[in-house]
Amino acid sequence: MKNIRNFCIIAHIDHGKSTLADRLLEFTKTVQVTGGQMLDNMDLEKERGITIKSHAIQMEHEYKGEKYVLNLIDTPGHVDFSYEVSRSIAACEGALLIVDATQGVQAQTISNLYMAIDHDLEIIPIVNKCDMDSAMPEEVEDEIIDLLGCERSEIIRASGKTGLGVEEILSAVIERVPHPVGDEEAPLQALIFDSVYNTFRGVIAYFKIVNGVLRSGDEVKFFNTGKEYEADEIGVLKMDLSPRKELRTGDVGYIISGIKTSKEVKVGDTITHIDRPCSKAISGFEEVKPMVFAGVYPIDASDFEDLRSSLEKLQLNDASLTFQPESSLALGFGFRCGFLGLLHMEIIQERLDREFDMDVITTVPNVSYRIYDKQGGMTEVHNPGGMPEPTLIERIEEPFISASIITDTSFIGPIMTLCLGKRGELEKQNYISGNRVEIQFKMPLGEIVIDFYDKLKSISKGYASFDYHQDSYRPSKLVKLDILLNGESVDALSTLTHVDNAYDMGRRMCEKLKELIPRQQFDIAIQAAIGAKIIARETIKAVRKDVTAKCYGGDISRKRKLLEKQKKGKKRMKQIGNVEVPQKAFLAVLKLD
Ligand code: GDP
Ligand code: MG
């Protein structure tokens, strides 16, 4: 135990966490890096530069003549996965706090730091990307000193690019991070902080032993789910899985025990022995609940079963994805899917497209509302079609979040306007250093899922970082806004929205749909309605569509290309009554401006 160090890296997205982790692995000869990053192994992650799933890896390092085992636990960097981050942090005794020397402290730097401080982690501050011309290490150090109340000498200057500071970081981990403490004689308590699905081996759960000893072949129980297994294989995480006979208090390792789906393993659960169980679970366990819901429909109705099996496969390795069949008059048969947040939704959409070649239409996302009826009962509704008759409803509550935005003082005005326009309430402002400020709001989550990120980005020219966590449910005045095409209500275009937003939203949706739906051989009336009341209207005038007319001369290959393009475009169209609606129209509400 004395020579073990368990630590994680916390950082805002793109501040260089993965790159620096690679340098640590290289320096300790855990891996020979041959270009690219080692810790992110999903293609999608690489492209997006976001570590989606946490991983853990064991390094060995000799320091002052003694051998140490360093377990690096990687954490996902996005708010959607903050529960997973909290469990990874709970498995560690220390954290490297990385701040980009060109960007300074950002929203996730702070939210992750608070989490680490809550768990009493030893924080090692690092200013990264010091190799860059635009680096301002002094200023960023000032920010860190303000934030942590540490000494300048405790901050390490580093570069994941040149390798500056890497050895010093390893020494600091050994010198400053406390070794794990626990009771080897006590009943087994191991904290599950992550799990991955492997086609051949089933689910591999990652854990840290808080107390006790686990041996291969032991009969174990997962405390919160109550499921029992045999520990078929246990071991430590090198570049591959390295089996071991026994793991002791303080060790980080993996267990394979014939678990078939990710749903069976809950991050945050406690592993204990069946014959000598611990008396209570490790605290902090939560069931993760989807926060954002959307309909996912195959473009071609005959793909419904394929879509189901694709979603089942995705769920095998992503337990936070939920789905259940639903049907729409406009879109036919599909699924209501639940996601942790917007990024999670985008990831699933992209994986359906890339890994399963599924052409799908995703409807406007909704959050989950609590509807109280007059008998005192409560149902959670996250689908416009699921709203009961207004006369049956006693009151409605919607989820609120605590949001934190860090930006340049020059953007305070427009950001305030944006947030207040989204029904946000200002909580407080903290000045971080000279010209930067943290603004805290309480806001309805439902306002974030619709075009918030894009707007924040554009008004702040990219210089605002955003982070949030769930807060509470609050009373809300919700209405169902319907869209009619040629007099027919299109259920897939309905949304639930606050009454104050409804008129504006109805008008803008009609305008947007007018842009997005191509002219057809007849006039198309687009209307927005609340109940029987029409609140907005636009008309698309008829036209004979002949795209090839644009081609001058007789360039036949160009003509053919255009026709092919048009055919491909067709695939993404959906026939609603007699109107052809392009796929992007269903997401129109997300891009209102
Ligand atoms: P993460 O999102 O925190 O994991 O960040 P990454 O490690 O993926 O790095 C984000 C981007 O910054 C990538 O394009 C890296 O190549 C680049 N980067 C990371 N560390 C450094 C550094 O020390 N110096 C420079 N110049 N670029 C870096
Ligand atoms: Mg990364």
From TrEMBL:
<comment type="similarity">
    <text>Belongs to the GTP-binding elongation factor family. LepA subfamily.</text>
</comment>
<dbReference type="Pfam" id="PF00679">
    <property type="entry name" value="EFG_C"/>
</dbReference>
<dbReference type="InterPro" id="IPR006297">
    <property type="entry name" value="EF-4"/>
</dbReference>
<dbReference type="InterPro" id="IPR005225">
    <property type="entry name" value="Small_GTP-bd"/>
</dbReference>
<dbReference type="Pfam" id="PF00009">
    <property type="entry name" value="GTP_EFTU"/>
</dbReference>
<feature type="binding site">
    <location>
        <begin position="14"/>
        <end position="19"/>
    </location>
    <ligand>
        <name>GTP</name>
    </ligand>
</feature>
<keyword id="KW-1003">Cell membrane</keyword>
<dbReference type="GO" id="GO:0005525">
    <property type="term" value="F:GTP binding"/>
</dbReference>
<dbReference type="GO" id="GO:0045727">
    <property type="term" value="P:positive regulation of translation"/>
</dbReference>
<dbReference type="GO" id="GO:0005886">
    <property type="term" value="C:plasma membrane"/>
</dbReference>
<dbReference type="InterPro" id="IPR000795">
    <property type="entry name" value="T_Tr_GTP-bd_dom"/>
</dbReference>
<keyword id="KW-0648">Protein biosynthesis</keyword>
<dbReference type="GO" id="GO:0043022">
    <property type="term" value="F:ribosome binding"/>
</dbReference>
<dbReference type="InterPro" id="IPR035647">
    <property type="entry name" value="EFG_III/V"/>
</dbReference>
<comment type="similarity">
    <text>Belongs to the TRAFAC class translation factor GTPase superfamily. Classic translation factor GTPase family. LepA subfamily.</text>
</comment>
<dbReference type="InterPro" id="IPR013842">
    <property type="entry name" value="LepA_CTD"/>
</dbReference>
<dbReference type="Pfam" id="PF03144">
    <property type="entry name" value="GTP_EFTU_D2"/>
</dbReference>
<keyword id="KW-0547">Nucleotide-binding</keyword>
<dbReference type="InterPro" id="IPR035654">
    <property type="entry name" value="LepA_IV"/>
</dbReference>
<dbReference type="Pfam" id="PF06421">
    <property type="entry name" value="LepA_C"/>
</dbReference>
<feature type="domain" description="Tr-type G">
    <location>
        <begin position="2"/>
        <end position="181"/>
    </location>
</feature>
<feature type="binding site">
    <location>
        <begin position="128"/>
        <end position="131"/>
    </location>
    <ligand>
        <name>GTP</name>
    </ligand>
</feature>
<dbReference type="InterPro" id="IPR004161">
    <property type="entry name" value="EFTu-like_2"/>
</dbReference>
<dbReference type="InterPro" id="IPR027417">
    <property type="entry name" value="P-loop_NTPase"/>
</dbReference>
<dbReference type="InterPro" id="IPR038363">
    <property type="entry name" value="LepA_C_sf"/>
</dbReference>
<keyword id="KW-0378">Hydrolase</keyword>
<keyword id="KW-0342">GTP-binding</keyword>
<protein>
    <recommendedName>
        <fullName>Elongation factor 4</fullName>
        <ecNumber>3.6.5.n1</ecNumber>
    </recommendedName>
</protein>
<dbReference type="InterPro" id="IPR000640">
    <property type="entry name" value="EFG_V-like"/>
</dbReference>
<comment type="function">
    <text>Required for accurate and efficient protein synthesis under certain stress conditions. May act as a fidelity factor of the translation reaction, by catalyzing a one-codon backward translocation of tRNAs on improperly translocated ribosomes. Back-translocation proceeds from a post-translocation (POST) complex to a pre-translocation (PRE) complex, thus giving elongation factor G a second chance to translocate the tRNAs correctly. Binds to ribosomes in a GTP-dependent manner.</text>
</comment>
<dbReference type="GO" id="GO:0003746">
    <property type="term" value="F:translation elongation factor activity"/>
</dbReference>
<dbReference type="GO" id="GO:0003924">
    <property type="term" value="F:GTPase activity"/>
</dbReference>
<keyword id="KW-0472">Membrane</keyword>
